[in-house]
Amino acid sequence: MVTDRGLQVLRAIVQDYVDTHEPVGSKSIVERHAFGVSAATIRNDMALLEDEDLIAAPHTSSGRVPTDKGYRVFVDHLAGLRPLTPAQRHAIASFLDGPGDLDDLLVRTVRALTQLTGQVALVQYPSFARASVSHVELVPLDAGRLIVILVTDTGRVSQRLVLLREELDDVVMTRARTTVGDLIVGRSVRDGVQRVEEFLSTADDPARRDDAAITAIVRFVAEELDEFRQDRLVMAGAANLARRESDFRGSIYPLLEAIEEQVTLLRLMSEMVADEHGLATSIGRENAPFGLVEASIVASDYDATGSRARIGLLGPTRMDYPSNLAAVRAVARYLSRMLDDDENAR
Prior knowledge:
13 helices
């Protein structure tokens, strides 16, 4: 049974280990923290913490380091969020303020977060399955090249270059714009996908063989709509893993692989359970089902025009949880406000 003072000793060990990257001993705790008791008393508290698997000795020295379980207790019960400084808040605002579509805003978001924390920053795209297509534009270039631009009411914009067999005249371009617009504009992405699929299912009809160019354009539109329905991540700061390689007990390869594949991180971020403040953490061995026992993720929910997604940080278990949680919460709130303002302005 760990006493209240024992839990405060755990807090001191976590904070000192994160700051110094050195195992923490009873003497240094007495010197750095005002417990008002002897080093021998602190050693007894540390022995109880070790019995509870909250701290461990990495080698034969007298110092101790937090275990994954110790970090969990610290995050759940002992870690108050560390307020951001005015300079940090100004940095967030300067990164995120300004015009741009959703893709650009999310890129700026992860760049801001990785600069604030030195960790790998991740942000999920909000779900676009229920978004509506608000605008379609077909822009002819030359030599049969065409740009297809799709815009949703949630601010998502996609541009795709389409290569056709021949250049289209004005009559066919007008028909193509009318056809694509009738299929998807003003409809949800989900409904648009269904209508496009129905259109393409009759593409081999002999009565429509002269519409081969329009059918090709609709196929490209179908591919874009399908991407709108897929979960995606935007990331920044992967190089920070290499710089922090000494913080990992084993190989960082599984983390690099997860960053490249995205599927694992999307599942993990989606399954993390948030608290009443929309904050979630997954620490070390808790990530074993995802092959990421060497890492921790902290995340915060953000709102995006009726749907909810997450923004988070990936790094070693030895991370500054109070500061990182405060950073993801602050950036998530700012991002939510930006998206809400953009929605109200449309």
